[in-house]
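README, section 4: Worked example with a bound small molecule

Sections 1 through 3 covered apo chains. Here we extend the same pipeline to holo records, where the ligand is supplied as SMILES alongside the sequence. The molecule in this example is pyridoxal-5'-phosphate. Nothing else about the input changes; the structure line simply encodes the ligand pose together with the chain.
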Amino acid sequence: MASEAEKLRKLILKKTAEFQRARAKTVVEFDRNTPRVEVSGRVFDEHDVAALVDASLEFWLTAGRFADRFESELADLFGLRHAMMVNSGSSANLVALSALTSRFLGERRLRRGDEVITSAVSFPTTVNPIFQNGLVAVFVDAELDTYNVDLLKIEEAITSRTKAVMVAHMLGNPFDAARLSEICRKHGLFLIEDCCDALGAKTGGKMAGTFGDFATLSFYPAHHITTGEGGAVLTDNPVLKRAAESMRDWGRDCWCKPGCDNTCGKRFGWKMGGLPSGYDHKYIYSNIGYNLKATDMQAALGSSQLKKLEKFVAARKENFDFYLEFFRKHAEHFVLPRAYPGAEPSPFGYLINIRQGAPFERNDMAAYLEGRGIATRMLFGGNIVRQPAYNGENFRVVGTLENADRLMNNTFWIGVYPAITGEMREYVAGVIEEFLSKY
Ligand SMILES: Cc1ncc(COP(=O)(O)O)c(C=O)c1O
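The generated complex, written as structure tokens:
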């Protein structure tokens, strides 16, 4: 016989699903008289809300069985041995790069002053961990039609001080990861693939994120799947896994899960650093770490959302392809997006890339769309070197950042996320036709 609590749990979950189904019915249809087309947003159903409530009722609060399950689902999806959930994509990047400075890596660990090559066209928290770890960022240019880092420029920037490359698969369009991992292998460099905007993207039939030492993911509501706030770090390397876990979990040496003791079997048997012999392993710190763990509530939602990933990616592709076909007709004014041979993008947005010399400016076009209820976004930090945050900071630039400037000045993106319907796309295309007809 089910206990009273178990019966109530089932009833609550049933009612939660009913609530969500009823609420979903009240969502207002797209209306051309008061149009609104967002760039991104959470896409969820009754199963997601029930999963979140289920984990809330369990009230474990920190990372527990739901996090274990989500981590193993993510690892399986990528075919990698380890996935570690964290509380954001930014934390995932911080954990991954900080792990490369860990004592667990011995002589290979990155030290203050070592150089990390990255793209000048970046989201800030792809590059911030370089500064936060006292390393030197080396910025190189991006390509105008893939928005990805230019691999030739990476090769030019490599010196004896270079120790790692940390770059994002931009807007879900994977860079040539096989070639970049080959360059890194040849020069003995670590590679971190920021896949925060590219979950589900593939290249050469392999998931983007499986070519480097670490992959990072974001589950912020704008991304392919959401856990609210949330992210993950993935690796196939057990030493890097332990280093990342330690950085995530206060820098500790101990690897017990929350609520567990003595996983190592000699909790009071260690002698490390200047500590007295037998000092509790739970309180031994090998790394200067953080606490960036996520919770079971986030993980339960993650597992439920992950089931829909394929469908979400297919919807994003369909919207992206619609805009690509539309802009082909106007290629005299726009640089069309390019994917590498063998790449299967998992689009984050559609970048409208206005040709140099077009008879209109980016700001005019973006304002026109915004004025008609179509949300727009810049390409993250643009040429990030020009952002006030980095003024006077310790970095190098190799080559010109000509394309980065052009991407900063001439582009903006519109949404392709699954809630965008055929009717909305047609509306957006109509508004753009209307704008272009003036020129
Ligand atoms: C490429 C890239 N990396 C990292 C992040 C950070 O993710 P989060 O917002 O979860 O911290 C983002 C955010 O959108 C991003 O676009």
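What to look for in the output: Residues 253-285 form one domain. The two ends are 74 Å apart (CA to CA).

Section 5 describes how to batch many such records.
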